[in-house]
Amino acid sequence: MTRYGFIGLGIMGSAMAANLARAGFDLTVWNRTPGRGAELEGLGATVAASARQVVADSDITFAMLADPAAARAVCDGDAGVLAAMAPGKGYVDMSTVDPATALAIEEQVTRRGGAFLEAPVSGSRKPAEEGSLIILAAGNRDLYDRSLPALERLGKKIMHLGPTGNGARMKLVVNMVMGQMMAGLCEGMALAGASGLGVPDLLEVLDAGALANPMFRLKGGLIQRGDFTTSFPLKHMQKDLRLALALGEQSGQPLFAAAATNELFKRALALGLGTADFSALASAVDGFRRP
Amino acid sequence: MTRYGFIGLGIMGSAMAANLARAGFDLTVWNRTPGRGAELEGLGATVAASARQVVADSDITFAMLADPAAARAVCDGDAGVLAAMAPGKGYVDMSTVDPATALAIEEQVTRRGGAFLEAPVSGSRKPAEEGSLIILAAGNRDLYDRSLPALERLGKKIMHLGPTGNGARMKLVVNMVMGQMMAGLCEGMALAGASGLGVPDLLEVLDAGALANPMFRLKGGLIQRGDFTTSFPLKHMQKDLRLALALGEQSGQPLFAAAATNELFKRALALGLGTADFSALASAVDGFRRP
Amino acid sequence: MTRYGFIGLGIMGSAMAANLARAGFDLTVWNRTPGRGAELEGLGATVAASARQVVADSDITFAMLADPAAARAVCDGDAGVLAAMAPGKGYVDMSTVDPATALAIEEQVTRRGGAFLEAPVSGSRKPAEEGSLIILAAGNRDLYDRSLPALERLGKKIMHLGPTGNGARMKLVVNMVMGQMMAGLCEGMALAGASGLGVPDLLEVLDAGALANPMFRLKGGLIQRGDFTTSFPLKHMQKDLRLALALGEQSGQPLFAAAATNELFKRALALGLGTADFSALASAVDGFRRP
Amino acid sequence: MTRYGFIGLGIMGSAMAANLARAGFDLTVWNRTPGRGAELEGLGATVAASARQVVADSDITFAMLADPAAARAVCDGDAGVLAAMAPGKGYVDMSTVDPATALAIEEQVTRRGGAFLEAPVSGSRKPAEEGSLIILAAGNRDLYDRSLPALERLGKKIMHLGPTGNGARMKLVVNMVMGQMMAGLCEGMALAGASGLGVPDLLEVLDAGALANPMFRLKGGLIQRGDFTTSFPLKHMQKDLRLALALGEQSGQPLFAAAATNELFKRALALGLGTADFSALASAVDGFRRP
Is the CATH number 3.40.50.720 carried by domain D3-163? Predict the structure, then answer.
């Protein structure tokens, strides 16, 4: 029976690890800040003393860290992932990192004989709890196949996208499209309001036809009520737009509409909305008509 | 029992009138080009000799004409709609026209004591046949209430949007958002292709999450196969974007992302794609990398 | 000796007519509002009783009216230009009008056997007084040649640009470039200020190199002092940008940077700056950082 | 008498050093590739064996290197600038570098007791030869004052812009405005051509009025003839636009028109025009109408 490890028990990671434990997998977990493993122990998981211990005791180790810096830090040092990495072992990093970070970790893992898979996810807390994430895997194909039984407990949609780096790139492209749809929604709502139409009427029409989508349904109403409680911070969306435009620059692909959208998000940043939800873009689109 | 009339039996109109006839309503129909009423007679409708005759024999007359010029022409002359318009009668124009045309027809109808309702639809042939159109009504509220039993046979979603002109305006706003979503889809697909990602992978990811919508699902695959068979002509989309920007100009609402999108559609027009489907925008976004 | 006429003695027209009178030309003048001809009589001109009288007594009649409506109105009626138009006579309209208006007046003049020249000017009061306007003539080439001795008293640069309509079109293109240069200046000044540079330093650097131009020199300092006294109203600049974009739409020429510039001017309009100088664009570019 | 040094004798540096030598200054020079000092020896300069030797023998050393990497490399090592840096000595780096590089070199120089001045220039070979550069100095004010007698032989316009980094920043802002003016020129020329106007006529009109500037005069004719011989490479202009947009992002300044301009330059890059002159942007603006 395959032994699994899970490193990083934040909001996302603890929900994901719990799904693996509930499925009856042999599971060893670790978190930098102690005390997060208690609930998982109750579900049958073993709490290890270090990241190294997790890797030593597992065939395949999953990681879900906060950012690229944390993803690299957990690998290094005497108690780190790499200290126990060895031939036959697999490391699946599900953190959201840039292509360069993914490639750097892959290089270190494979130098020690291990196999590496990049597997960032699309979706936040609720899909993590429900095991309905979208998993954008890329890298070692054999490790992907071996990890599938576990990944299928974490996501409803699991894809292998090619060489390492493609997972990170796919997230950028998807978030760029998300930013453009948000700009379309906000400009549409602003135009409706400015020209005497009922904004709730617009939302109802949009939700009835070929453009209907869960994001418009959820965010449209929140924008209408001025509720910008953060689910995905606006400054992260603007960062992803900047990185997508840079990817276009490197790839020889001009992106006129995305560039205009990026300036709108920069305007929202300048208005002090960086930590609000990315739907606060609405205030930058029509904000000048407010006091 | 209310007597209904239906003027304009083209692709859309004949399907809509058939739904009214099948529902057992008392229905009189007319079309400028003769011979279109045969099938409707089989369903129990009466074919009149003129638009005037339809109005004379009906309490409420629906019209579905090709464009603003046709919508105005059917009203005028000895055999026209206005010749029989009188107090107690209602006229529901479901053609796609600009706000000025709707207001002009309303003025003529009400001057003769009739009531007017503007009711453009969102959706094409298939929803017309299935009675699942989105109906964007505006104008006389009482006529709206009296027309509802019939409108409910034509559409799955029927809304009253306020004073006459708002139906036409709402269509512009919705089509603007549609154009921006198409630009987002095309730039996303172009960036995916240029940066080494699988374009079908992107479509699969988009369809699995919060951005999933029928338009991406339908058009994404067609774009991928280079199939630009016209469903909604690109030149009409560009015209609607131009009119939406003009509406923004009149309403004091700048629209930076929509303006960039409009230039992309203008670029597609300049490439000779005006009569292709509006999804042919894809060729203008990344076309320069093709021979 | 050629007899000249001049119709329209506003700020521009009276200065231009005075230059012709001072040059010793045989000159008959008329203005809709009486009393404007006194100074010109002192310079040797004859004041006529109507526009028709001017045309009747002149070989070539110049006109300088406020707008397209005035340019058309002066032609019509018993006392209008057309009433005296005849073979051998020339009519040179120097008003700023759209191509359609110029073509319509040309059609009426030539139908009566006259010759027509469109000749809008670039430059305002001061160049009109100094005879240093830029004259953008288009239309009848023979009339252009015959008018040159007079035009050379009015402008320092006189060009014949082809068929009627090209004068109006050239003004649109030049004003579009002017709007884009103004956007560049305002964004540059805003970026300098936001990033800790001295804005006067930027203006000094711009004025020292290959980008140096009279508009930056004049407007840069005024913007810096917040002096937006109207020389060219912002709403007219935005209108010209809209018309230039429409010309691009008809000509198959997308204009991405001009379209973004147009949205900036629309934002300034929405801020209530339409009657301020077009350099008030500066407030729309960085205005959100002010209280 | 102040002893001056000059490091970096490329096209720009050799012309600048020659101006100092001709002015009779005590001058020691060095270049990484030997043999470049011969002409300068003829003018009275001394050729040193290393960058260190130049600094050792000079009170104030000027440097003109190719790029940030070269500017840093010349400082390091046993034979480098820093090896001889000492209290009382000044180092004036006139290379074009980013703010971070300028600050890093300043830190190293001042740690050894020296004084640092950043002084990038605007202008290319010809102004370098004629001593008519624009010099954008920033940093140590005392060193600026002491360097003025020499700087006045190199430039016609010498400015002190505040703390180190402001020289590099000012160059970015000026180049951004230059890129926007080039976009305006190219879109104007494209619109003129597409709408039936004579492009040379447009250039003549632009050069006669308030928009007249040396860049339009020079580049307009070259674009018209399709001559894109490189004076300032297009890829460098696009890089500066990207950096200016990034500066705006850090400073809270959205730049809508500059962002659209950047995408136009990216489109030109994608067409393979990176090493052509930046005026080759014209091909990206209207290129789709060419075969």
Answer: yes
